[in-house]
Amino acid sequence: MSSGTVSTPVSTVPLWINGAPADAHSTRRGDICNPSTGEVIRTVPLGDGQDVDRAVAAAAAALPAWSATSPVRRVRIFARFLELLTAHHKELASIVSEEHGKVFLDAMGSVQRGIEVVEFACGAPHLLKGEYAASVGRDIDTYSRLEPLGVCAGITPFNFPAMVPLWMFPIAIVCGNTFVLKPSEKDPSASVRLAQLLKEAGLPDGVLNVVHGDAEAVNAILTHPGIQAVSFVGSTPIARHVYVTAAQHGKRVQALGGAKNHAVVLPDADLEVAADALAGAAYGSAGERCMAISAVVAVGEIADPLVDALAHRARTLKVGPSMTEHMDMGPLVTREHRAKVKGHIDAGVSEGAALVVDGRELKIAGHESGFFLGPTLFDRVTPAMSIYQHEIFGPVLIVLRADSLDDAIALINANPYGNGTAVFTNSGAAARKFEDEIQVGMVGINVPIPVPVSILPFGGWKQSLFGDLHMYGPEGIKFYTRTKVVTTRWPRESAANAFHMPVIT
Question: Which residues are annotated as catalytic?
């Protein structure tokens, strides 16, 4: 991504404000590249505070009518949106694949996981109804109401340009809020297309707005007095900044940070099943997933055969252009990110880790300018090495060795991240011990990427989450609403004046 005035004769992705495409106030632009070719295919405005102001003003103007709309009527719009998402599933996946670089089938799967959250949002009236308690006192009833917060904002990452926005704005909007979305400037087109489809489904103008940009737009959102809540997914340093800054400005915040997801493989595990699962979890989407398995803890005598099995799979993966059929892995998202990941591999070599498979010199014929990096595998990594300490966010899998399950659990619990983890075993007792003792938010038992279905919340522990509530599911409803409790009394006769604390009688 480059900043400054861009003269490349390609189309510009518009902002989406008050139900229509909009030009940016900012004159700064960034390049959007096709990672498979390295070519600039679009430009994107890097919005400023005035662009954020316009989006918030549109959202604030739409709020009174939208919040007064009944949940059932809101859901009817999202039911139509669900139909449109299904009809345009392949189109959305193509946009994601072109701008991000993940292979088409992977993009299809990510869009589907976003669609599932919209399915959950269509059941929101049941979750928004509150609670009622009759006759808590003489002639007194009490009940709770879940009410919208106001204008909310979402800041989403490059690795899931359709899925993560769909984790946020459908839940927020169906709860009666209006929304400002700031997608990644690396691959923003999917967000604008989602906004167009939601307008087609009948969403009133101003309820959903999209502002593109970099840190300037992010900081304008975090400090804007008209925004009541911010949801974020990204790296841990930025998540911490988002949480601290937005909270200091009186906003409700959920900020999901980075990860170093471990998978433990016990000696009794099915070696072939574990190796297949781990290869997909490590190298799928070129490792650019916050739930990717990036560290394997091999326990006991399974270590050597497991490394051999992983090496075989890494060497035989099909790597190529994202839209080419039958590819297992595509390029990384940008040239700069590829260089960063390569630097981590260089560091691992210099620190003494055993480089089993080296993907640094991969070249794809006809796509020499693409941002490709081959699957890479390290063995005999220690916690002191930088490739263990850092979230690499690329197709790099490291293997550590442990003598026992207790040692593996202690290793994972000592890690500052706590997003996702997995254990591969045929022992129910070992699996139960792992589930009970591990200090991680999402746990898989013979499941390498335990992303919860939409009826349960997504979120990690420790430095993988800043805030109290996880994303989507019932906790998403809680995040985007506030509770009002009403106590009513319709006395049958005049009550005497009371100057004491009221109690239930």
Answer: 290
Closest CA to 454 of 103, 170, 154: 170
- DSSP 8-state class, residue 88: T
- Region of 318 on the Ramachandran plot (φ > 0 left; ψ -120 to 50 alpha; else beta): beta
- The Cα 383–Cα 360 span in angstroms is 23
Amino acid identity, position 409: I
DSSP character at residue 74? H
Structural domains of the chain, ranges and CATH numbers in brackets: 48-257+464-485 (3.40.605.10), 261-445 (3.40.309.10)
Tokens describing residue 139: 């002639």
The dihedrals phi and psi of 197, each to the nearest 5 degrees, come to: -65, -35
140-148 and 132-137 beta bridge pairing: antiparallel
What burial letters (b/e) apply to 372-408, b meaning 16+ CB within 10 Å?
Answer: bbbbbbbbebeeebebbeebbbbbbbbbbbbeebebb
> Given the structure tokens 């099909």, which residue do they identify?
318
pLDDT score, position 4: 41
For CA atoms 283, 287, 291, 297, the dihedral sign is: positive
Residue 394: which residues within 8 A CB-CB, separation 6 or more?
A: 286, 287, 288, 332, 337, 338, 340, 341, 344, 373, 376
Q: Is the pTM of this model over 0.70?
A: yes
SS3 at position 276:
helix
CA–CA separation, 503 and 137 (whole Å): 8
pLDDT of residue 3: 42
What is the C-alpha to C-alpha distance for residues 34 and 41, in angstroms, rounded to an integer?
A: 6
Helix H or strand E encompassing 340: helix 335-350
Whether the Cβ atoms of residue 480 and residue 149 lie closer than 8 Å to each other? yes
| Amino acid occupying residue 211 | V
Rounded Cα distance, 118 and 14, in Å: 24
User: Is the separation of the CB atoms in 426 and 269 below 8 Å?
Assistant: yes
Given a contact cutoff of 8 angstroms between Cβ atoms, the answer to whether 230 and 253 are in contact is: yes
Residue 10, pLDDT score: 84
Q: Give pLDDT < 50 ranges for the chain.
A: 1-8
Say if CB 282 and CB 376 are below 8 A apart: no
> Mind giving me the DSSP string for 155-214?
E--SS-TTHHHHHHHHHHHHTT-EEEEE--TTS-HHHHHHHHHHHHTTPPTTSEEE---S
Alpha-carbon distances, residue 196 vs 18, 155, 208, 209 (angstroms): 11, 19, 10, 10
What 3-state DSSP class applies to 227?
Answer: coil
Largest CA distance in the chain: 89
Query: Which residues in 348-368 are b (16+ Cβ under 10 Å) and which e?
Result: beeeebeebbebeeeebeebe
